[in-house]
Amino acid sequence: MSRQTMHEQWYDGQAQANAIECWLNCYLREFAMPRGEVDFDYRGQDRPARFDQGSGALIRIRFAQAGYRLMVRAQRGSRLGRCEYVGSPYLKSPGEPWRSADAATLIHFLLDRLADECGFNHELRVQCDNSIAVNARLLALAADARESGNAMLDAEQGMVWGHALHPTPKSREGIDIDQALACSPEARTEFPLYWFRIDPRLLQRHGADVTQVLAKLSGEGDLYPCHPWEVERVMANPVWQRARAQGLIEPLGPLGEALAPTSSVRTMYHPQADYFLKMSIHVRLTNCVRKNAWYELESAVALTDLLAGAWDDVRNRAAGFDVLLEPAATTLDFAAAGEGEGDEANVRELGESFGILYRNSFQTLVLERYRPQVAGALFTRDRLGNSVCRELVERYARHHGGGYSHAAETLFAAYAKCLLDGVWLAFFKHGIVLEPHLQNTLIGFNHDLPARVWIRDLEGTKLVAEQWPPERLQGLSERARQSVQYSRELGWNRVAYCALVNNLAEAMFHIAAGDSALEDRLWSVVGALAVHWQERFGRQPLLQGLVEGDCLPSKNNLRTRVFKRADRDSDYTALANPIRVWAAAEEAA
After folding, report:
1. Which residues, 6 or more positions from 158, have their beta carbon under 8 angstroms from its beta carbon?
2. Which member of 180, 272, 329, 394 has the greatest number of CB atoms within 10 A?
3. What is the DSSP string of 154-214?
4. Same-domain status, 209 and 70
5. What is the pTM of this model?
6. Is 185 contained in some domain?
7. In a 3-state reduction of DSSP, which class is residue 394?
8. Together in a domain, 82 and 36
9. Alpha helices in 374-455 (DSSP H)
10. 583: enclosing H helix or E strand
11. Residue ranges making up the domain that contains 567
């Protein structure tokens, strides 16, 4: 066997192991746990012989269909049922012996168990195959790539595993795999955008004037870009072809400055640019095709202006908290090249392909002083499987003393306070529903301690309808108003899931590393923050309920995909709240 083939097999094995972990964790949380069909420390005799020895808890999952079972060993788990596994899962079907399963076999088995409820989802099966293949190739590319020395960019491009509780964390559906790899952040790549010379009358702008930004990146004026993945789609559009024949637009190809993709894949970074450029791509990443609908761009820019006073208030009262504003958006309007109602869809699609949102970037002094890094790159494993944040905690312990557990609590408390003070102020005082999940949160450090938090992606920000009636949203179109308004219940589910379950619970999982006592103390930090926040800013029943043990909402990514729902229609599973461990101890004291 050649050395190259051995490497390819190793990367494929790692990608398959990651897929198995993601699927098992999703299935546990969204189906097995709510239905009472899981034993987390199974000690019965109904098991494959290979499980008679070995360390770690044995997990058994039962199914509604009689005779089907799944068994796997976990080397560690969390209070929320998030696990890391040892070896392969084993599957049992009626009348058949236990058999070891690779990722494809496991996914087919679980989809088959769910088929009675929603039919067998062949589309998701194919997307999982794509995610595994992309992950394996990205691991190989990451092994040979060099870091840039820019801490922020290196973190953005270091998330080789993706969302830990998602069935397709690295899918790039809708693009050839080699094209996908050429523009993916995990390969630590950079590339120029694809530029067109345009008649200035095509340009449609919302918010700040960014023409000089585009001119700086392209090298001259009256040029406009799209993401390289969009070029083929754009040129196949008959309205674009007609516009070109009319002299309104001319393709020039890749040119100008090379930009680096960040962790969201489609958002581009250049160190000398004032903005990140959030490009539009008709490629499915995890749940969604990441195209830029004009009403979404409009709402993001409008919220930058509309919420200026609210952001000032939150910054002043929540030390270290900030948001990355999105003051501009552009696209191209091809209505003049259309030929009536039949071309409406083509004009709209072109507008989506050329849509760009401009997000404020970091000044050089901020990058140097705080070394901002995306939270998802810290609370995860590196490409070799090592905990990234553990090194951070150990370094703090070496420099400041007190041992690992003390350092862990100190760092976690500093981060959680920065995050939650601002997120809760935005929600409870201003009716702003942020989306502070791991990929939307950047952490800045001061002397190895989290000191700043920035939340990004105002496109995903919503407003509580009770606090933001239509008369307060006069600057938005009707479609944009519909896209930003949320009920208070949905808003709390989103905030609580993103901040507590997706973000802080994952941080605890990697910081505690299987130490359940330490994990409990970290949950107690969250409980204490909720109590202290109310002492400073006023009682909130939802926060008090959190302290007293109300369930935590966890977004159902697997259910969303299995039942073929739009991401906006995702529902939540209620998880047992570990904060009640702390609350009970407080009452006993």
Report:
1. 142, 147, 186, 377, 382, 388
2. 329
3. HHHT---S--TT-S-TT--BTS-HHHHHHT-GGGT--EEEEEEEE-GGGEEEEES--HHHH
4. no
5. 0.95
6. no
7. helix
8. yes
9. 375-378, 388-400, 403-424, 430
10. helix 579-588
11. 364-588
